[in-house]
Each structure stands twice: as structure tokens, then as C-alpha cells.
Design brief:
six-stranded antiparallel β-barrel, 3 domains, Elongation Factor Tu (Ef-tu), domain 3, alpha/beta, Rossmann fold, Dihydroorotate dehydrogenase B (pyrk subunit), domain 3, 252 residues
């Protein structure tokens, strides 16, 4: 079983009408967390199932994660004030294997927060491409600007940054060259487009898949996805075998 921690809430920041960022204090978690891993958080006593949240950032003994209010559990979490404690399992899953060279991190919507820690973990530097539906959903651009060499902001309607999709600046960067890998997280259709673009330019690509989870430790198989290894197709557990996979191993 993974380690269980009772963590104090240090800060709960409202980033938009429905998006929040919680910072918790936990030296044990912070010391072992890697970019791409996630936390499984209990959201109130009456809810049996925990909620999975990708780790956004680690600073000393503090960790942060970002979430959108979608139901009772995340609504309960959004009301947690500093000083309250959270029951957390983690860090869970396999994180990114970040190479020594410069990387491109690609985040779509709520897939953007885990890319912040990935960018910070890139010893050779990082360029970020962030995609959102519209300006009111844009988050973390300033923080990415603090740790990345360059940040491309894309919105579907052009209300912030440039109008378009993340694969447009991605192709420009891949044509220029000089990067060791692409690392991505977001909706499946976006990640497939990123994976296809990387295949076109023969660029190594890792993706963090988003699936519904129940146990978070590989026992319930709710988050199973189809992957291929050595020419053999198999079912993998996103929570246990992932959430990070090499793009060429994912059956899209």
C-alpha cells in the first residue's frame, strides 16, 4: 500500500470561478514526489472514494495541486481553509523520465498544472505550450514564465494569447530542433495530436493519461487503458502502470 499522510492545508487559492489551487505541508510527500505523479485525496468523511490530483509544484516541504469543482467531493475540497487537514495517499503512479536536454512541456486545460513541476524538473531547461478554451480558464501562466525559457499561450477563441491549438507552436519548435523530448498532459484528443506531431518529427514523447480512478493503486481496474509493448497489445492500469506512458505505447 502507498504511504498515507495527514497534511495541513497551508493555502487554498481561488484561481477562477471553479478552479482552485491547494497547498499542503508534508515533508515526507514533498521529499519523494516526482513530476507526473499524483495524490489521492479523501474529500470528506462521508465519501468513500478518494479523488486523484496531479502534483503541480513542490517547494521545500510543501506541495500544491489544482482542481476544478465538478461535484460534491471537489466542492467540499474547495471550502477547505488553511489549518484544516487532508487525508492523502501518495505520491502515486509513475512519473516522467525527464532527459538531460531541453524539453517542451505541453499542457491542455487542467492538464497544465502537472507540467509546471515537469518544467521545473528539466535540468536542461523547458519551453511551455499551454492551451485553454478561453481567457477565463487560463491559469499559471506567470508561474510557467518564471521557470521556462519561453511560454506559448493558446486559446480556442483567441481571447488570451494566440488563437489556435497547441500543435501549431509545437510544430514550429520541432522544425527548429534542439529539444530532447516532448512531455504532455491534457485531454486525450489533444495528447493524440501531440503524439502524432512528435512521431512526424521523430521526437520522443511522454504523455500523462487522464482516466477515472477509484482505488488509485491498481486493484479495481477502473482506469484500464489499452497499450502495446513489443508488438503485444495489453490492458494497463493508468494509476499503477502510468499515468505516464511513452506515446508510442498508447493505443489511441
Amino acid at each position: 500500500m502507498p504511504d498515507r499522510y495527514i497534511c495541513e492545508v497551508i493555502n487554498n487559492e481561488r484561481m477562477s470561478d471553479v478552479i482552485f489551487a491547494i497547498t499542503i505541508a508534508c515533508e515526507g510527500l514533498a521529499a519523494s514526489a516526482r513530476a507526473g505523479q499524483f495524490l489521492h485525496v479523501k474529500c470528506g468523511r462521508e465519501r468513500i472514494l478518494r479523488r486523484p490530483f496531479g502534483i503541480c509544484d513542490v517547494r521545500g516541504s510543501e506541495l500544491s495541486f489544482v482542481f476544478e469543482v465538478k461535484g460534491g467531493g471537489t466542492r467540499w475540497l474547495s471550502a477547505c481553509e488553511p489549518g484544516r487537514t487532508l487525508d492523502v495517499l501518495g505520491p502515486l503512479g509513475n512519473g516522467f523520465s525527464i532527459p538531460d536536454g531541453k524539453v517542451i512541456v505541453v499542457g491542455g486545460g487542467l492538464g497544465s498544472p502537472p507540467m509546471l513541476l515537469a518544467a521545473k524538473s528539466a535540468a536542461g531547461g523547458a519551453t511551455a505550450i499551454l492551451g485553454f478554451r478561453e481567457e477565463c480558464r487560463v491559469i499559471l501562466v506567470k508561474k510557467f514564465s518564471e521557470v521556462c525559457d519561453e511560454v506559448f499561450l493558446m486559446t480556442d477563441d483567441g481571447s488570451a494569447g494566440q488563437r489556435g491549438v497547441v500543435t501549431e507552436p509545437l510544430e514550429q519548435l520541432l522544425r527548429l530542433g534542439g529539444f530532447a523530448a516532448v512531455i504532455a498532459c491534457g485531454q486525450l484528443v489533444m495528447q493524440k495530436a501531440v503524439a502524432d506531431m512528435c512521431e512526424k518529427y521523430n521526437m520522443p514523447c511522454q504523455v500523462s493519461l487522464e482516466e477515472r480512478m477509484a482505488c488509485g493503486v491498481g486493484a479495481c481496474l477502473v482506469c484500464a487503458c489499452e497499450t502495446v509493448s513489443g508488438g503485444v497489445t495489453q490492458m494497463s492500469r493508468v494509476c499503477k502502470d502510468g499515468p505516464v506512458f511513452y506515446a508510442e505505447n498508447v493505443v489511441w
